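Design job #97: recover the sequence.
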């Protein structure tokens, strides 16, 4: 005979509880065996939920937002530190660098001579020449210059100085041989005189002579039918004068200091008469190394 199972009161409720616990254990085992859940220890199989187990598998890649903010702050601090090490010069510092001490235009010797001349006084020609002699350094025979400010531009002419300029003037009459030399760059004259028939030939070398002021010109008498006579006049002391192109001023050589007061006075008077007093604003007399002396016309 088989075994007879005797049921007691309350056994049915106990069986139900045992069956429910068995189901829960089976479900927990199935969850643990599911893909992606390997490596979870057995002790926590029945207590951890699938979502919590999945979160453990997430790995952070790259810096977080907080780390990025920290790096940005550090970069700004390093840039400020570099600026403090090599600061840019201020506006005041730049001006100090640009401002250099001005050098004296004239030497000490010139300044001492300049102090002897009253710049607010206008001297007569005789007084000016006497003062000019006191301003000489006696190192060499200085050239005497006359600088004439005129009332207008375009004033020109020529004059024969009674005592010459003290410098030998090289005067040449144009010919075919001379033109060939000029084309080669050979120029051995100070004044060129030509007949009108030579001017078309001289046009070939106008670019060479023009910038040097050596091109013959009817205004100064260097184009003439008698070139030999004109050449002798220039060799004897004839000079041309002309205002600058953009300024009403004429620069002239009137002789050497060795001429003496009388000869220099004669040359200066001849020049002033040729320019005409009505065209003159003021006159300055000086030598090569001296300061200027205002002369009364």
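Job complete. Output follows.
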């Amino acid at each position: 005979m088989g075994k007879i199972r005797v049921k007691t009161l309350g056994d049915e409720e106990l069986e139900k509880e045992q069956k429910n616990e068995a189901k829960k254990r089976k479900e927990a085992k199935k969850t643990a065996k599911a893909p992606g859940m390997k490596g979870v220890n057995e002790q926590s199989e029945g207590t951890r939920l699938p979502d919590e187990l999945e979160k453990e598998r997430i790995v952070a890649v790259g810096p977080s937002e907080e780390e990025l903010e920290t790096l940005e702050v550090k970069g700004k601090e390093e840039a400020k530190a570099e600026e403090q090490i090599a600061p840019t010069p201020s506006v005041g510092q730049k001006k100090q660098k640009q401002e250099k001490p001005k050098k004296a235009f004239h030497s000490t010797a010139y300044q001492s001579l300049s102090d002897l001349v009253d710049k607010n006084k206008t001297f007569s020609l005789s007084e000016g020449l006497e003062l000019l002699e006191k301003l000489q350094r006696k190192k060499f025979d200085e050239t005497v210059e006359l600088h004439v400010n005129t009332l207008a531009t375009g004033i020109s002419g020529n004059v024969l100085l009674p005592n010459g300029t003290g410098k030998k003037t090289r005067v040449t009459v144009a010919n075919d041989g001379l033109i060939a030399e000029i084309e080669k760059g050979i120029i051995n004259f100070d004044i060129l005189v030509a007949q009108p028939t030579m001017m078309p030939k001289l046009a070939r070398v106008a670019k060479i002579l023009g910038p040097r002021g050596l091109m013959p010109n009817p205004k100064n008498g260097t184009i003439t039918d008698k070139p030999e006579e004109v050449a002798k006049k220039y060799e004897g002391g004839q000079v041309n004068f002309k205002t600058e192109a953009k300024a009403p001023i004429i620069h002239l050589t009137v002789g050497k200091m060795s001429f003496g007061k009388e000869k220099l006075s004669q040359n200066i008077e001849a020049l002033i008469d040729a320019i005409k007093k009505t065209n003159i604003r003021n006159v300055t007399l000086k030598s090569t190394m001296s300061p200027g002396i205002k002369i009364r016309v």
